[in-house]
């Protein structure tokens, strides 16, 4: 029965609460790095002592369970593993679960079942089949206050994934800084700086935890922001500008996509001249028939974004709140007073005429940051999804037979193994003849842009790509130098890049049989790469489908080989029968 040991008494509950809370805290430390994957960590505990730990560092890196088991070594046998989230391996090798089983862990405590249906309960089932005790906190028996707080921490660290599952939308946070009298700028519009440097550092780190930062055209014209995390590495969110008429300056910090990718969302047909200029600079343009916060958030959901950080002015903030797309509010209140009847407030007109119409924040927290006060709360409380009664079955899996198009834009979905970011190392040769082990297909692909180029910057970039911790970092290194110094990209790149992608995928799918089986199972379906944020594989929404086309080409070759193998087997069998009959 669930939680018979974990819930049996106060001391045991307190011990589970302590280590589960510690696991959630460790998982949260990588929130700026793992997107679009959830934040996961693992602690292995023996005799009330942590003997192994690990957390997911970035997309395409070693699972937290594998790290923890390696650190624990023989001490993992008979120990308890604490996981803030049920493992959900989107790459087809189940290495996280396998590592726990092979290490001999006797008990696994899980804070939250996986919210995504194609992962949910699979790891729990596999562990129980291996005779490992699995306790899912909050299921089976009443839990104490300490364990409730630990469970809440597990939910909070992966709030974006829970909101995405519950509301079919990215988790959206509205952030603003205001004076004590509720102003975000003076009458003249001057707003630098309301909050303190310490508060601004918190904003930078909050941006890094999101997939995209949203502002309106007024903010671009008035403040000319960069919207970066002020870091050269790690996860860098996309910058999104909303502008109906596209009345934006030709030159702005946001048009420099070396710092981070930029997307401009506008209404169809607006300012075509500026659209073309921005495209030439590498800015992505997305047109809507009618631009609205709801349309934008629906688009971001389809793009696979987990979390959005809104740093817009009062007019756009009011529209976003009224549209129901804002889930959380972060308000930095500075101990300053500027007055001004026409000075703008953080949220514009919403049509409320009575206090009874006011929107109440839930689960409010207060934190002093330097001289400022940070007030945070939820407009839509954290979803409490009940997955206890949902058992893993064949019916929960995606039916490939019913699908004609398989989208590859979600790196953590049922086809995450097809991603160039998947954690499958390959052995591949460069065109210069060097044969080495590459961490991922992405590492190999990015390095080949500068293969054989005898220039210090190109050679340095290739060296950095080879050792880059994550495929996201490798991708950023390659894209940045390609954009900054087009003269350093190998002269034949346009003609060989398809060959290079195919060569990398061939190595990957031939080395890992389970990936080959997954690819063959998509026979009859069209594989489409819609990750238009990656200009390498899909240059805009109407661009090329390099990854999808390469996968389908490889699939066709594998299917042809299967047919040949089958025919050879039949001929051999027929020959054997004929020999026996004579």
TrEMBL record:
UniProt domain CMP/dCMP-type deaminase: residue ranges: 14-135
Coiled coil: none
One biological process term in Gene Ontology: riboflavin biosynthetic process
Keyword annotations from UniProtKB, A to Z: Multifunctional enzyme, NADP, Oxidoreductase
EC assignment: 1.1.1.193
UniProt enzyme class: oxidoreductase
Biological or metabolic pathway of the protein: Cofactor biosynthesis; riboflavin biosynthesis; 5-amino-6-(D-ribitylamino)uracil from GTP: step 3/4
Molecular function per GO: 5-amino-6-(5-phosphoribosylamino)uracil reductase activity; diaminohydroxyphosphoribosylaminopyrimidine deaminase activity; NADP binding
InterPro entries in UniProt: CMP_dCMP_dom, Cytidine_deaminase-like, DHFR-like_dom_sf, Eubact_RibD, NADAR, RibD_C, RibDG_C, Riboflavin_Biosynth_HTPR
PANTHER family linked: 2,5-DIAMINO-6-RIBOSYLAMINO-4(3H)-PYRIMIDINONE 5'-PHOSPHATE REDUCTASE, DIHYDROFOLATE REDUCTASE FAMILY PROTEIN (AFU_ORTHOLOGUE AFUA_8G06820)
Protein name, per record: 5-amino-6-(5-phosphoribosylamino)uracil reductase
Native organism: Ceratopteris richardii (Triangle waterfern)
């Amino acid at each position: 029965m669930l939680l018979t040991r974990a819930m049996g008494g106060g001391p045991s509950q307190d011990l589970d609460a302590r280590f589960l809370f510690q696991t959630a805290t460790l998982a949260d430390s990588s929130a700026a790095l793992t997107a679009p994957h959830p934040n996961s960590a693992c602690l292995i505990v023996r005799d009330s002592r942590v003997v192994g730990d690990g957390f997911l560092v970035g997309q395409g890196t070693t699972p937290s369970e594998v790290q923890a088991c390696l650190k624990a070594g023989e001490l993992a046998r008979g120990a308890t593993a604490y996981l803030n989230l049920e493992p959900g391996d989107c790459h087809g090798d189940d290495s996280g679960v396998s590592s726990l089983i092979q290490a001999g862990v006797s008990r696994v405590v899980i804070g939250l079942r996986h919210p995504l249906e194609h992962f949910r309960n699979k790891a729990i089932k596999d562990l129980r089949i291996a005779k490992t005790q699995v306790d899912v906190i909050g299921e089976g028996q009443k839990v104490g206050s300490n364990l409730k707080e630990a469970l809440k921490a597990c939910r909070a660290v992966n709030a974006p994934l829970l909101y995405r599952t519950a509301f079919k939308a990215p988790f959206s946070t509205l952030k603003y800084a205001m004076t004590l009298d509720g102003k975000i700028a003076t009458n003249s519009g001057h707003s630098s700086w309301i909050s303190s440097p310490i508060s601004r550092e918190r904003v930078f780190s909050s941006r890094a935890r999101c997939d995209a930062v949203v502002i309106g055209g007024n903010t671009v014209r008035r403040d000319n922001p960069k919207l970066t995390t002020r870091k050269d590495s790690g996860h860098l969110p996309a910058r999104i500008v909303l502008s109906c008429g596209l009345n934006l300056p030709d030159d702005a910090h946001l048009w420099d996509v070396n710092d981070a990718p930029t997307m401009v969302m506008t209404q169809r047909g607006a300012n075509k001249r500026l659209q073309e200029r921005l495209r030439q600079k590498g800015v992505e343009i997305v047109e809507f028939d009618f631009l609205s916060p709801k349309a934008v958030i629906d688009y971001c959901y389809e793009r696979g974004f987990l979390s959005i950080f809104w740093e817009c002015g009062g007019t756009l903030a009011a529209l976003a709140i009224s549209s129901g797309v804002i889930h959380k509010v972060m308000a930095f209140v500075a101990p300053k007073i500027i007055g001004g009847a026409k000075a703008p407030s953080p949220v514009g007109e919403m049509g409320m005429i009575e206090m009874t119409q006011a929107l109440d924040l839930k689960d409010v927290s207060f934190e002093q940051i330097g001289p400022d006060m940070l007030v945070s709360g939820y407009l839509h409380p954290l979803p409490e999804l009940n997955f206890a009664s949902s058992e893993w079955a064949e019916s929960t899996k995606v039916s490939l037979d019913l699908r004609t198009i398989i989208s590859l834009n979600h790196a953590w979905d049922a086809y995450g193994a097809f991603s160039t970011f998947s954690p499958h190392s390959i052995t591949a040769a460069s065109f210069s003849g060097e044969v080495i082990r590459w961490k991922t297909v992405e590492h190999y692909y990015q390095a080949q842009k500068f293969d054989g180029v005898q220039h210090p910057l190109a050679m340095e970039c290739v060296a950095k790509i080879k050792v880059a911790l994550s495929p996201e970092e490798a991708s950023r290194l390659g894209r940045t130098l390609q954009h900054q110094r087009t003269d350093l990209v190998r002269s034949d790149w346009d003609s060989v890049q398809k060959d290079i992608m195919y060569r990398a995928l061939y190595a990957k799918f031939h080395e890992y049989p389970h990936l080959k089986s997954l690819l063959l199972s998509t026979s009859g379906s069209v594989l489409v790469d819609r990750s238009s944020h990656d200009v390498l594989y899909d240059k805009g929404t109407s661009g090329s489908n390099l990854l999808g086309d390469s996968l389908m080409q490889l699939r066709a070759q594998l299917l042809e080989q299967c047919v040949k193998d089958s025919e050879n087997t039949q001929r051999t069998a027929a020959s054997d029968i004929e020999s026996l009959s004579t």
